[in-house]
Amino acid sequence: MGNLRGLTAWRDMASGWFSSLGDERVVVTFDSQESTVTGDLAIGYAILTYTAVAPDGTTLRSLSNRATMALRKTAECWTIFHEHTSAPIDHQSLQAIVRRADS
């Protein structure tokens, strides 16, 4: 996917992804979430699981992804200044884990 900078780039990426789903829908769940706030800086992460569901309710496929965000508080609001997503890694095999044992 590369670097996405600005709202327009993110909107275009998301629009392209959602339009590729056809009549499927995606259910997003999260766990293992953590956050820390110190003064005007905050960092948080969670494991997100994306599950594709057919119109009849059948689960088609799923994958898990770790999301991390760093935010800075300004006078107006909290602003994300760094965002990263990746698949968790199995440290024994060094392979990406796209399906967790509990999902």
Q: Proportion of β residues?
A: over 45%
What's the structural domain tally? 1
Structural class: mainly beta
Number of helices: 1
What is the averaged pLDDT score? 85
The helix/strand series, from N terminus to C terminus, equals: HEEEE
Q: Any idea of the CATH topology? A: Nuclear Transport Factor 2, Chain: A
Question: Approximately how much helix is present in the residues?
Answer: 10-25%
- Beta strands, count: 4
Shape by Cα distribution: globular
Give start-end ranges of low-pLDDT stretches: none
- Strand arrangement in the largest pleated sheet: 1-2-3-4
Radius of gyration: 16 Å
Main sheet properties: 4 strands, antiparallel
Assigned CATH class: Alpha Beta
What this model shows, in words?
- This protein is mainly beta and 103 residues long.
- The protein has a single domain, classed as Nuclear Transport Factor 2, Chain: A.
- It is 13% helix and 50% strand.
- The chain has 1 helix and 4 strands.
- The longest helix is centred in the first third of the chain and has 13 residues, at 7-19.
- The two termini are 25 Å apart.
- The mean pLDDT is 85.
Topology:
Blueprint: H1 7-19, E1 25-38, E2 41-53, E3 59-73, E4 78-86
Features:
single chain, 103 residues, mainly beta
Describe the structure concisely for a colleague.
This protein is mainly beta and 103 residues long. It is built from 1 helix and 4 strands.
